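Exercise 4. Each item below gives a protein and its sequence. For each, produce the structure-token representation.

Item: UPF0291 protein SAMN04490178_13019 (Propionispora vibrioides).
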Amino acid sequence: MITPEVIARINELAQKQKNGVLNDSEKKEQAQLRRLYIDNIKKQVKAQLDSVTVVPHSETCGCGCHAKH
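Answer:
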């Protein structure tokens, strides 16, 4: 689960990387946290897409998309 603490740690490690002071164990931790974050986002997107339903659209729906000009 992505918590504010996890995001704060990701940002902290990113700042250390930017400053060039990231050691090997921190690089490993950063990679794991990034993977956790990405996997969480992918899970959320998949859940959102799985909940989408397609509604049939007809020419008599009245929305105006088939209006003749």
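Check: Helices lie at 4-19, 24-50.
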